[in-house]
Automatic annotation (TrEMBL):
Gene Ontology CC, one term: plasma membrane
Protein name in UniProt: D-alanyl-lipoteichoic acid acyltransferase DltB, MBOAT superfamily
Natural source organism: Clostridium frigidicarnis
Keyword Transmembrane found: yes
Record-linked Pfam families: MBOAT
Major localization listed first in the record, in broad terms: membrane
UniProt keyword annotations, A-Z: Acyltransferase, Cell membrane, Membrane, Transferase, Transmembrane, Transmembrane helix
Length: 459
């Protein structure tokens, strides 16, 4: 089930919200949590019932191992848990990729049935690895199956994040509170903003991106830049939209989810970009990979190596393909260059830093979007194909000047408007917010003629 669908907005969400708050009001706290777990599992398995089996196996194994680790504090149990989760994720996400490469390298013809990638497995696998690590470090953790299941399956963050820790969710679940009108209005506002960004902007840009990347033979230098910028805007608006909708839904249940995006394209260097982009993933990689590798405690060279490993893993986590690996490697090199630059004491103006950072991110996103490495290099080559610099006729492929104006407006708004954290913390004019929320919802609901998945469902 998708957030941007009529069945979710008009049936699932209202029924779950009303039932949950009635149960909480009646002091049936355990029943309300069980209801929310069952509803979340229904949400997750709505489009494919096989997903239910996959997540239940993961939940069952990890919770059982958690209980054993509570009784027998042994690092080998933790290692077992990490190996299981990585293997479980790898089977579904990387088996086809590995078989294809084995066939290519060894000239074999191994044929296996294509494994369907379950939604959200990357996210709930990371969350459960975090939980096991924290269990090993903090033996005082004491959660029951209901609270643990709700922490993992809570449907707003289940499919595409944000990646949450048990400390952010379980205490809120244990201390349930009655319906809160302020939280509900804030939540509905965030949900409406996210829905608008997804339905009215990201999906529109996505249609143009598909056209450009689907016909590289027709792409000239101007159209290549339009395509790259369109995807750069699309992926930010699409993913931040999901995160805002998830946060908004969480607030409706009086559960606060962490912010995931804080105006990343306004960053003046690559480190700042990663402090603002997919914040919860960065937090996971820092706390559970970078620091255990030694962080910055083992000398400058080792620090650079650790940083590179983190971004390599980030690329591999995002997808089974060389395009994602190259994307991670390039960001790894960029963060190393920034670290060396800073170490040497060099300075750069903020405007120039923003320009260079944005353009680097913009170009490297091409690897993220392209179907294979060959397409990536073709598209990047088109960006610098000066022989077609003045060929504006190809812009007709995306609608010509009207679309260029729309794209420029989107870029300007992304660089000038406040992010969701600023909006939420300055929330005080209910009349204005109510009008804005109503207007956004009306426009979006009238435009839901087709339902499209969020980009990060693929990761």
């Amino acid at each position: 089930m998708l957030f941007n669908s009529y069945q979710f907005i008009f049936i699932f969400l209202p029924l779950v919200l009303i039932t949950y708050h009635v149960l909480v009001k009646l002091k049936l706290n355990n029943l309300s949590k069980v209801f929310l777990v069952v509803s979340s599992l229904f949400f997750y398995s709505f489009m494919n019932i096989k997903n239910l089996i996959i997540i239940l196996i993961s939940l069952g194994f990890n919770f059982t191992l958690y209980k054993i680790m509570k009784k027998y504090h042994n690092k080998y149990l933790l290692i077992l848990g990490v190996i299981f989760n990585v293997f479980y994720l790898g089977v579904f996400k990387y088996t086809n990729f590995l078989v294809d490469n084995v066939n290519l390298i060894f000239h074999l013809d191994i044929i296996i049935k294509k494994i369907i990638f379950p939604l959200g497995i990357s996210f709930f696998t990371f969350e459960q690895i975090c939980f096991l690590v924290d269990t090993y470090k903090k033996k005082e953790l004491n959660y029951n199956l209901i609270d643990y299941s709700l922490f993992i399956t809570f449907f707003p963050h289940l499919v595409a994040g944000p990646i949450v820790s048990h400390a952010e969710i379980i205490p809120q679940v244990e201390n349930q509170s009655n319906f809160n009108m302020e939280n509900f209005i804030k939540g509905l506002t965030l949900f409406s903003i996210g829905l608008f960004k997804k339905v009215m902007v990201a999906d529109y840009l996505g249609g143009k991106v598909n056209t450009i990347f689907g016909d590289l033979n027709s792409v000239t230098m101007p159209l290549a830049w339009v395509g790259a910028l369109s995807y750069t805007m699309q992926i930010f608006l699409d993913f931040s939209a999901y995160s805002e909708m998830a946060m908004g839904i969480g607030l409706m249940f009086n559960i606060e989810l962490p912010f995931n995006f804080l105006s990343p394209y306004k960053s003046s260097n690559i480190k700042e970009f990663w402090n603002r982009w997919h914040i919860t993933l960065g937090r996971f990689l820092t706390n559970y990979i970078y620091i255990p590798l030694g962080g910055n405690r083992k000398g400058f060279l080792r620090t650079l190596i650790n940083m590179f490993i983190v971004f390599l893993i980030s690329g591999i986590w995002h997808g089974a393909g060389y395009t994602f690996i190259i994307w991670g490697v390039l960001h790894g090199f960029a963060i190393i260059i920034h670290r060396i630059w800073t170490k040497l004491g060099f300075k750069m103006s903020k405007i120039l830093g923003c320009f260079l950072t944005f353009n680097f991110v913009n170009i490297v996103w091409i690897f993220f979007r392209s179907k294979d490495l060959e397409s990536s290099f073709i598209m990047i080559g088109k960006l610098f194909d000066y022989s077609t610099m003045y060929n504006m006729g190809s812009l007709k492929l995306v609608g010509g000047l009207p679309y260029i104006i729309i794209l420029l407006v989107v870029i300007i708004l992304v660089f000038t408007l406040k992010n969701s954290k600023v909006i939420l913390t300055s929330f005080n004019n209910y009349k204005y917010i109510g009008l804005l929320t109503g207007a956004l919802l009306c426009v979006c609901l009238l435009s839901l003629d087709k339902v499209s998945q969020f980009i990060y469902f693929n990761f």
